[in-house]
Amino acid sequence: MSDTLFYSPDIINNPQLPEIESHHCVKVLRMRNGDLLTVTDGKGHFYQCTLIDANPKHSTISIINKIDVKQPRNFILHVAFAPTKQMDRNEWFVEKATEIGIDRLTPIISNYSERKEIKFERLIKTAISAMKQSQQPFLPQIDETVSFNDFIKLPFKGNKYIAHCYETPKTPLTQIYKKGENALILIGPEGDFSEEEVERAINSGFSPISLGESRLRTETASLVATHTIHVINSLS
Amino acid sequence: MSDTLFYSPDIINNPQLPEIESHHCVKVLRMRNGDLLTVTDGKGHFYQCTLIDANPKHSTISIINKIDVKQPRNFILHVAFAPTKQMDRNEWFVEKATEIGIDRLTPIISNYSERKEIKFERLIKTAISAMKQSQQPFLPQIDETVSFNDFIKLPFKGNKYIAHCYETPKTPLTQIYKKGENALILIGPEGDFSEEEVERAINSGFSPISLGESRLRTETASLVATHTIHVINSLS
Q: Nearest residue on chain B to A71, judged by CA atoms?
């Protein structure tokens, strides 16, 4: 059996591999009918399957066995970030956050955003390959771009934080976040959120936080926030 | 005064900007004689300077004021990593580690290393621009490539760890590392260290560690290890 993990989002209703996965399976790995493969739906399941119709565009598979995987986290982590100008920096944050473990990612557009739109499909593709590469059956939810003002109105069952660089009062994330809590963290663009946006977020229930001493790039701050939550949860 | 931070490693003995910095200063920012600029030597000092000879190849500066910056960390962090095949992944680890804060980085070559040499100068360049971008006066030490066997024999005043993916006994870094301790962490290549290398490191005083549940890429593992040490040190 190939140790490649394949992705088929709707395997139960449609036991096929999407085109990109079929191509990799048949053209790159040269798998043939009867070969065994492991597939995930990105929703917490692994499926041991047999390739029954090796087709470079839409291979058909047959499920032999389904394995339910328990979500390793007992907290929900949602990071909303203002995409950076350089697209590859957004992609690497999505890749790293998926590897480390995250539930939901939302690109937000704020006053000083240098990038007002984002190639949504590329972020999904990046998350899928990171999930496969790290051999997990959990694909984070990636949202379409939302405006800052609409986003802060959305409900969230947990603690909400906004990271900013102003001198106004804020608490380090490592001090304010407690193990096991659900967390929603807002990370601003290169030029930071506007003071008015920070104010508005605070009025919507977000606590202002800092992420340490050094001035971090947007994508570094996003990853630092993501991993800080993991470290605090893994402490005994 | 431009908010760009310039780098001049030997400013006291040679008050000039290196060629790349001179070019940025004179050609990109179009600074002129008499302009004020902030320079760091990467050794914990900021210098407020005046540009006295604006030259695109070797600008001369005059120091007005020297500011000593206290190292924000009370621990030493040294990460030795097996460089990944894709050079950009090594560069981003160096960039992110420099932003977050690290004292020393050593590329090591081990049995299963896919990359046996590394463009040393590119790593230095990456670290310098990350230091400048994050407005700090501390440039991490970046070593030339060392073989795994030579590296594990080097002395280190602190705790030594080796991260690996084998099922043999190991402790999560978040459990074994204690606030304030100096840490040297070994991160293996895509194919992991060989079991024999892990054995040899353990015999040289390295403790085997894990970095969490998910399977991480080499550069992600390196960054996760780096940031875990920071988070533990920032907890009260």
A: B213
